[in-house]
């Protein structure tokens, strides 16, 4: 049996190894914020450490999924979820004032955590790279449509311009699971399988 020394495997290993010290940082920051009354600005610094360590953990999750897909080792755990619930979760995560959700969902069987992160990442990339304050997310069964998508953000949300890790990984996840991501006019369409 030959050892896997591919770059994708190296990235997976790095993600795994970084999680332990990161969990320590996050754990101690959480413990400090819950057990000690810290004076300003120390209380705010601990909050920032907690938030940043959570962000790093999410980035590691994204890198790990991408590496498993690229290395042919992605084995999704599929569960049923309603597409409207996925859209509403994205709006809650990003702010209901920024993401207006409407429509009717459908039940799909998919890798819920990866798709949930992916939908949020694509909506966030639409906002961030389009310089937008708000978008509309319309759910039509297994299809989710985000608008408006600007010319400057279209290639980013399609994963063709690698300026957003979350969007690039989201496209790969959805396509690997049998779905599709496309932009037509000012609308990003995520088709779930």
Average predicted confidence as pLDDT: 94
Rg (CA only)? 18 Å
| Unreliable residue runs | none
For the biggest β-sheet, the strand order reads: 2-4-5-7-6
Count of helical regions: 6
* Secondary-structure element order, N to C: HHEHEEHEEHHEE
Largest sheet: 5 strands, mixed
Strand % is 15-25%
Structural class: alpha+beta
Overall shape: globular
Q: Helix content range of the residues, please? A: 55-70%
Measured distance between first and last alpha carbons = 35 Å
Number of DSSP strand runs: 7
How would you describe this protein?
It is globular, with a radius of gyration of 18 Å. The chain has helices at 7-35, 42-70, 83-94, 112-130, 151-157, 165-176; strands at residues 79-82, 99-105, 107-110, 135-141, 143-147, 180-184, 187-191. It starts with 6 loop residues before the first helix and ends with a strand. A hairpin with a 2-residue loop joins β6 and β7 (187-191). The strands form two sheets. The chain has a five-stranded mixed beta sheet with strand order 2-4-5-7-6. It has a two-stranded antiparallel ribbon with strand order 1-3. The protein contains six helices and seven strands; from the N terminus they run ααβαββαββααββ. It is α+β, with helices and mostly antiparallel strands and 193 residues long. The mean pLDDT is 94.
């Amino acid at each position: 049996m030959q050892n896997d020394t591919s770059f994708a495997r190296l990235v997976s290993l790095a993600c795994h190894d970084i999680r332990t010290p990161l969990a320590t940082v996050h754990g101690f920051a959480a413990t400090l914020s819950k057990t000690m009354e810290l004076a300003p600005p120390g209380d705010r610094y601990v909050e920032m450490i907690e938030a940043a360590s959570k962000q790093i953990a999410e980035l590691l999750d994204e890198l790990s999924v991408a590496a498993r897909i690229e290395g042919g080792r992605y084995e999704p755990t599929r569960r049923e979820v309603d597409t409207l619930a996925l859209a509403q979760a994205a709006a809650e995560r990003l702010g209901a004032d920024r993401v207006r959700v409407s429509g009717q969902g459908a039940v799909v069987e998919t890798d819920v955590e990866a798709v949930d992160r992916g939908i949020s990442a694509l909506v966030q990339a639409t906002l961030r790279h389009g310089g937008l304050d708000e978008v509309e997310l319309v759910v039509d069964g297994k299809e989710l449509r985000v608008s408006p998508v600007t010319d400057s953000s279209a290639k980013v949300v399609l994963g063709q311009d690698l300026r957003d890790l979350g969007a690039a990984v989201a496209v790969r996840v959805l396509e690997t699971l049998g779905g599709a991501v496309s932009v037509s006019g000012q609308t990003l369409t995520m088709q779930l399988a």
